[in-house]
Structures are given as C-alpha cells and as structure tokens.
Design goal:
Layout lengths: L5 E6 L2 E7 L8 E8 L9 E7 L7 E6 L6 E8 L8 E8 L4 E9 L2
Antiparallel strand pairs: 1-2, 2-3, 3-6, 4-5, 4-7, 7-8
Length: 110
C-alpha cells in the first residue's frame, strides 16, 4: 500500500471518497471520509466503514456515522492499526433489527 492513500467508491447514486493521511507520532492514521447520496438512517441504524484485505473474510472497522440527507457529509476517523496491512475499503449500512451490515460500496486503496 502506498501511504498516505485514498479510495473512491461509486455507484450510480452514491459516492464515497476516503483519504488516509500520514501516521502521527502516536501511531494513529487520520482518515477523512466524504460521502454523497446516502439516506438518513434512523431506529438505531447507521453506516460503517471497514478496511478489507483480499483473501480475508474479516473486515476491520474504521468507524460509524450517519448523514442528515442525500447531500455531502464529511467525517473524520482515526485508526491505530497498521493500514498497510489492508488493500480495500467497504462502506456498509448497519441494520439494528437484523444485526448485520449490508455492503453498499467497495473500493481498492491506491
């Protein structure tokens, strides 16, 4: 992985752009996440961003968030694990009722 890195995931009606910054002196990697075209979720539902690795069925969570409407929303995350171990990102919608994440968008880290 080339760090800092970024990923862009699109579908006909959704967009997610993730930028990963330089690791800080404490070992944390800042992430700036900008999404567009997502619906506001309620009832305990929210969006989850995961880092993924080819050949692994276990994604690692970056953070969770919600949006107010289908406009542009930007959130900041910080992760302490080594982002160089991962090669992709997945944006998912978490359903509290079903207790599972439904993948919405995927992208390779570049």
């Amino acid at each position: 992985l080339r760090t800092p890195g970024h990923a862009v995931a699109t579908s006909p009606d959704r967009l997610a752009v993730v930028s990963i910054g330089e690791r800080d002196e404490d070992g944390n990697w800042p992430m700036l996440v900008t999404v567009e075209g997502l619906d506001h979720l309620s009832g305990g539902d929210y969006y989850t961003l995961f880092m993924t690795r080819k050949g692994s069925k276990r994604p690692v969570i970056c953070g969770t968030f919600n949006v107010s409407d289908k406009g542009v929303t930007t959130v900041r995350f910080s992760v302490a694990y080594d982002v160089d171990r991962f090669d992709g990102l997945m944006l998912a919608e978490y359903s509290r009722a079903e207790r599972e994440n439904k993948p919405l968008l995927r992208a390779e880290l570049t």
